[in-house]
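Amino Acid Chain and Its Fold in Token Form
===========================================
Structure side: the spatial fold of the chain, written down as a series of whole-number tokens.
Position: the record begins directly beneath this header, with no further notes in between.
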Amino acid sequence: MPEPSLYHLRVHEEGWAEAFIRCEVKAGKQVQTLWNRYLKAKEQSDTNLPNDERPFVFVAKPDGTTEGLVIFNIKDLDEFCIAYQLHISGRKYKKPAVYEEE
């Protein structure tokens, strides 16, 4: 599993002790269903938004609650953090212009 480039964020929760978040890492069969749901959602997004370079985020919201889970690939952690910071600062995403050759 690739490590994020941020110094204090590591795959094993023991390496996150000095981070400003709590972390519990699970692996193997116990998370396979969640991983499969993530892959299906990403495939749907990739189909509907081809060539979209923004990091993909899967949000899972069970019935009966207003809460949910935000899930993204660990390799996209740095990009997600940057994109989220731009989002909460009020910046708006603008789709890059595509020019056709004549």
Summary: The radius of gyration is 16 Å. Residues 13-88 form one domain. The chain has a mean pLDDT of 85. The first strand starts at residue 58 and ends at 60.
